[in-house]
């Protein structure tokens, strides 16, 4: 009899104690509201109110009973990002990607996510301006808003995000120039991916002091001198300034030995190809459709690239083009 009472007591105790894996009621309710706002897609069919959201719900990860990661990707999702996203207060990763029927803009309630480290809203149909209040996410290190329909200027306030390491806002419809404030990042200088927008104007001279790891400004309408991204003492690995209207003398540029990918094609760059390029371990190289002249320096890897990487210049000659 005593053994039976002891077993009943342990059973009651076990049932009454919360599981270390079960999510909190607040997080669960927020997720169910998000599912409803996204029109109950089949992608989220596992989000059953009778089950625990931390142990089987698609795209949900938890730490200490709090939802810390939410990934909704490649599914039949439609609607807008609901305001309830801001109720997942411990969220560190928010990833809504490859959702072509996700529309609207980024809700202001996202600023409640003070622990957010990664924000990826990639290849959706989000539109309107990129909101200034994104900069209130002071813990974000990786910002990816690429392949959307965002319009208007780049918010200068992004430079005030102290932990930002990468800005990917490429493949949108952004207009205007690179903000002057980008010359004064408060934290680590991020990788800069702004390609395939409708940006224009000159690059702020203040960016010349930075040692970017990667810069891709291709497919815009930038003008003036783009050579400030280069420097002998920098550690830049990849630079793509192609398909713009940059004008500078290539023969005067000092290149970092670390560069492995360099694309300057389809600009108005003039001068000669400097011999210094023969000392780089280039994996990708293209200077076609510019105003370059002179003999292509021999040595290194330059002669391993196709003639098309040098074609359509004023008067370049030498291998792999015709002899001088």
Automatic annotation (TrEMBL):
<protein>
    <submittedName>
        <fullName>Leucine-rich repeat protein FLOR 1</fullName>
    </submittedName>
</protein>
<feature type="domain" description="Leucine-rich repeat-containing N-terminal plant-type">
    <location>
        <begin position="25"/>
        <end position="63"/>
    </location>
</feature>
<dbReference type="Pfam" id="PF00560">
    <property type="entry name" value="LRR_1"/>
</dbReference>
<dbReference type="InterPro" id="IPR032675">
    <property type="entry name" value="LRR_dom_sf"/>
</dbReference>
<dbReference type="InterPro" id="IPR001611">
    <property type="entry name" value="Leu-rich_rpt"/>
</dbReference>
<dbReference type="Pfam" id="PF08263">
    <property type="entry name" value="LRRNT_2"/>
</dbReference>
<comment type="similarity">
    <text>Belongs to the polygalacturonase-inhibiting protein family.</text>
</comment>
<keyword id="KW-0677">Repeat</keyword>
<dbReference type="InterPro" id="IPR051848">
    <property type="entry name" value="PGIP"/>
</dbReference>
<dbReference type="InterPro" id="IPR013210">
    <property type="entry name" value="LRR_N_plant-typ"/>
</dbReference>
<keyword id="KW-0433">Leucine-rich repeat</keyword>
<keyword id="KW-0732">Signal</keyword>
<feature type="signal peptide">
    <location>
        <begin position="1"/>
        <end position="22"/>
    </location>
</feature>
């Amino acid at each position: 009899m005593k053994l039976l009472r002891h077993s009943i007591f342990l059973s009651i105790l076990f049932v009454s104690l919360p599981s270390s894996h079960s999510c909190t009621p607040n997080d669960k309710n927020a997720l169910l509201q998000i599912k409803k706002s996204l029109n109950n897609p089949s992608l989220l069919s596992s989000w059953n109110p009778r089950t625990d959201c931390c142990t089987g719900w698609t795209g949900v990860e938890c730490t200490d009973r709090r939802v810390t990661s939410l990934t909704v990707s490649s599914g039949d999702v439609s609607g807008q990002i609901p305001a309830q996203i801001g109720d997942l207060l411990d969220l560190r990763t928010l990833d809504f990607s490859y959702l072509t029927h996700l529309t609207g803009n980024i809700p202001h309630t996202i600023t409640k996510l003070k622990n957010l480290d990664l924000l990826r809203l990639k290849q959706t149909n989000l539109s309107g301006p990129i909101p200034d209040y994104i900069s209130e996410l002071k813990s974000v290190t990786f910002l990816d808003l690429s392949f959307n329909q965002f319009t208007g200027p780049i918010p200068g306030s992004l430079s005030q995000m102290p932990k930002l390491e990468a800005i990917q806002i490429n493949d949108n419809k952004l207009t205007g120039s690179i903000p002057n404030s980008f010359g004064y990042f408060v934290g680590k200088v991020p990788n800069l991916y702004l390609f395939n927008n409708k940006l224009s104007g000159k690059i702020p001279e203040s960016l010349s002091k930075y040692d970017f790891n990667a810069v891709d400004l291709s497919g815009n309408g930038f003008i003036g001198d783009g050579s400030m991204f280069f420097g002998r003492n920098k550690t830049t690995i990849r630079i793509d300034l192609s398909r713009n209207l940059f004008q500078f003398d290539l023969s005067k540029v000092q290149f970092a030995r670390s560069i492995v990918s360099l694309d300057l094609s389809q600009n108005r760059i003039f001068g000669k190809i400097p011999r210094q390029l023969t000392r780089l371990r280039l994996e990708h190289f293209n200077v076609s459709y510019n105003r370059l002249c002179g003999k292509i320096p021999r040595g290194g890897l330059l002669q391993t690239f196709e003639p098309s990487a040098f074609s359509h210049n004023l008067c370049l000659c030498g291998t792999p083009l015709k002899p001088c």
